[in-house]
Amino acid sequence: MPFKEDTSNAEKLRVELDEALMRLERAALDIRARSKRESGEAGGEAEDRMSRLESENKQLRQAVEKLKQQYEILEMENQELQERAESADRELDITLRQLDSLIEEETIH
Hints:
Layout lengths: L1 H36 L5 H66 L1
Helix pairs in contact: 1-2
């Protein structure tokens, strides 16, 4: 069923986004630790660099949050479409049974 594949792909995307965010956070922590260890870089330069990286990290977090919100909206729309498709299938099944019944009655008479 294509709906299940879409849900599965969306869930994979969500997991990948979460993993990317964790990698960014780890990278920021690693850079912060490295900058403290490196004596060649002046304190002000290291602070500027960290400030830039934290700003980029904040922007990426916001982007990930927006993507998560969009994912949740798409997930709800997908669920609604699945329910509509199932309802349409049930209605079609009922209509076909009624049609078969009418054809059978006409054949008998």
